[in-house]
Fold these 4 entries.
Entry 1:
Amino acid sequence: MDPMKRIIDLTGSASENDASVRKQEDLSELKENLLYTMAEIKSSGSFMTQKSLASGVIPGLHVPGIGAIGLPISTENAKAMIQSSWMSPYGKGTETLVNESNPRWETQLNIFRDQAVTGLGLTTAKPEEVKMELYKLLIYEEGAFFLPHQDSEKADGMFATLVISLPSKHEGGEVIVSHKGESLKFETGSNSEYGFSWAAWYADVMHEVKPVRSGYRIVLVYNLIHHPSAALIKFRGDKIGSLNRLLSAWTLAFENSTHRLEIWHDQVEVNCPATLVYLLDHQYSIAELSVARLKGVDRQRFVQLQAACLKNNCDIYLANIEKSVKGGVEDDEYYGGYYGRGRHLDDNGFHTLEDVYEDSLELLHVVDMQGAAAGKNLPFPETMIIQNDAFNGEPDDEDFEGFTGNEGSHATHFFRPTGLLIVPKAVSFLFEVELLKEDQGDTKQYDARMRTPADATIG
């Protein structure tokens, strides 16, 4: 059934609208329609993209203390580089200082960059706006691996990592990249004797390197950095009409409600305006929390939602969210022991909560479309989130405390998604109220915003 045929009617009289806004079933149906429409907005790319080449331009590697390194990399040169390297965290690989001296290598890199930008679905970015910054050279000898992890933001504007596997015969060392329950494999061994392979993935996805079975897997690691032009966000899609109709009904009902502020005021545990929260596919750090840093399908969904908000008297914000769930766990004498994993840990090393006795949900950090702080540490109800069962998957982090004389073992699971907030303009000023209460707001700006049109013309 077309979800647009099931839009709730919130355009009747003021009293009818007041009743409808308060009905949980109406809110649920609105969220269901929004979720369906947003899901139809898809990225042309993936969270990981890759390519293999039978041959390529020689980068002209030069390692201090060793000199020029030819390709394919010989066993002798690989061992020499290991001697001048240091251990890398999370695994048993080694990293080496290196520079590229062949000017033709930059042309080759630009080709890799353009293909990576397209493969990752960054369709609104100009390839020349994406900079490649050499981060390190990694050497994986037999038995070396890299544990599952996310890349940290190593430079301002970094949104992805690009790894180039150089000609060096090896077996194993496959990279497994995972995101939202889907896994992709980057296999380099079959093309390693004379060929090049590269892969790029978004910085927030989980990835690991399986053990190298033989030989030396040698890769150059680049940070992909994006500083977009002012004209970057221009994409418009055919889902804007559907979003318009959905938001129009909701905002009209809310604006006509005579109790909207009273309802907010009575909920003392809720410190943010009435809002709809759409959780994004990717996670963003505070440094990355801006429109310019949105990735792939997140960017496309934002652009279409922003267009609908502009037409329907809504503001749109970005927010980092934290859900914490605390509960008891079974005592595990093997936890942290020789095998590194206890009987009551799942495959990702998290304890299973046997009983939950404490939980919280907050907007940790909220920014407006200009990147200015709009709020922080604001509790809000889970009913505002458009997605159902948003926190049923694996947590992002865990705090564990073992048995003590006073209490049994317990753990706290943390879920840290990033979301888009849709807020009717009629109540978006409440963000400023909360900032002012924390002595962080701009009183002059707030006073100016609160003036009536008549007041603004006086003096």
Note: The CA atoms of residues 210 and 270 lie 46 Å apart.
Entry 2:
Amino acid sequence: MTSLIDLFGEKEIADIEVVVEPGEELTEDEALLNGPQMAGEGLSQDDIDNLFD
């Protein structure tokens, strides 16, 4: 995401409208599905780096 901010600028990224289609409202739990992992869960950066070795 940092590369996008560098490319387009922080203000332009902040001004992007997020559109939720009718009937696509997410529950609190569903909103967490695409968010950051909870502490101590998920893959570490070392795990990801090892995929490319």
Note: The chain has a mean pLDDT of 81.
Entry 3:
Amino acid sequence: MSFLGKLFGGKKEEKGPTTHEAIQKLRETEELLLKKQEFLERKIEGEIQTARKNGTKNKRAAIAALKRKKRYEKQLTQIDGTLTQIEAQREALEGANTNAQVLNTMKEAANAMKLAHKDMCNDIMDDIAEQHDISREITDAISNNVAFPNDIDEDELERELEDYETSTASHRPLLKIASMTIYLHPRC
């Protein structure tokens, strides 16, 4: 609806009935026409009985009954035609409804397949990226001497080495027997 139509209270757009509502309405109409058919058949049978009963005694009443019977038969024929049209329309609508449901189901399945393939592809790519990250971490760990940290003080190592050198210089061999050397530690 246009802006001016809304502003001046134009005609509102009416939504048509849903497929389910239309099918239900057609079924209700069929039931109504079937009841009308039964009613007319009973009326026709009643007029036949009236015509037979008055056939010899009251010819005018018999002819009037036969005329009503003919009108009822004409109405019955019209109702038969209408019922045929309504049944055909209902069946076509039910078929269209079924086709629409099948198409919706197929569309949902196609969308699910697209999503599954997209998710599967994304999952595989995520797994590959994760494996690359793990591999990179392992390579970094191996190449960075994690077992031998670089936070050792060089000066401290040099002092320790000097201590070893001075302690070995103060050890003097006393006796050499065969291949055995005995050292005495000086008492400080």
Note: Residues 17-140 form a domain with the Helix Hairpins fold (CATH 1.10.287.1060).
Entry 4:
Amino acid sequence: GTSQMERKKHNLLPPPKSASEEIIKAKSSEGSYCKRNSYPGRNAYENRSALVMRDEKDSPGHDRGQENFHLGQRSRVRETFRLFQAVCRKLLHEKEAKPDRQNSHKRVDYLVARILKDKKKYIPVHKKVIGSVPGVEVGDEFQYRVELNMIGLHLQIQGGIDYVKHEGKINATSIVASGGYDDKLDNSDVLIYTGQGGNVMNGGKEPEDQKLERGNVALANNIHEQNPVRVIRGDTKAFEYRTCIYDGLYLVERYWQDVGSHGKLVYKFKLARIPGQPELSWKVGLCVDDISQGKELIPICAVNPVDDEMPPSFKYITNIIYPDWCRPVPPKGCDCTNGCSKLEKCA
């Protein structure tokens, strides 16, 4: 239960084995699967050396071992996701069943992350990667920020800009754009990202001008180094359960100072998505908001991911029309005026 997991300072999940530990063992022995058509030879970047798109048919020296390596890494990433979600569901059920238990107020995602780390179920990250992370694909979704850390996509649990020292300068490796700093996320291929700092997100302190330091200077250095930045987009509906999606690699084109909504100077960065990468599902195709044209209580959305052709004209009806040869059998039931009573025999 949850109380057992809190006693894991010296010996996490001591015998008898808890349900969470059994889930980890079971999931680890299940094996894993991965999409056979997802490997870095198609629409992927080399981490640092070659900032050009590579296609399998255009690469005479395409290494089969690289494909197998990506498949293996992809399998590990997917298995880590499944394991995290399984343990997370277990702890959430325990938390709901016994809300008065000790430490039930602690965030479940942090508890699960610590369990998996202690059990060496994290994907080991020996150094921060510039460019694409092996095994992670555009469109991967994450319910918790800590999942980004577990697979090496974005190691900062709370910070929006992750960076590494590269050739004597710090360079940004990834950013999380969730709109918290007045980021402009509307354009699918261009992102206007607001820098960090200045007490913008801390309501307990007076806002101040942002400084060109830490993550801000790292993003600025990326302009000259032309190193790609991984972009993870998120929403701002909830803090703890914020869904994030990996959007792919971007290049920082320029930056400038502007006056923020709080009246202080902030740094703005313009990032452009590198072409040739897979598109996110919500970016692709023509969308019709409601094909029922208001006849249904809940709008019925239709998406055409192939081209820009609108749906053909038709008359939407809300009732079922059966062909002449079909005689549907009416549902069985009594003829009580006000519904069936609890008595054995209906009046």
Note: The beta strands are 141-142, 161-166, 169-177, 190-194, 229-234, 244-259, 265-273, 286-288, 302-304.
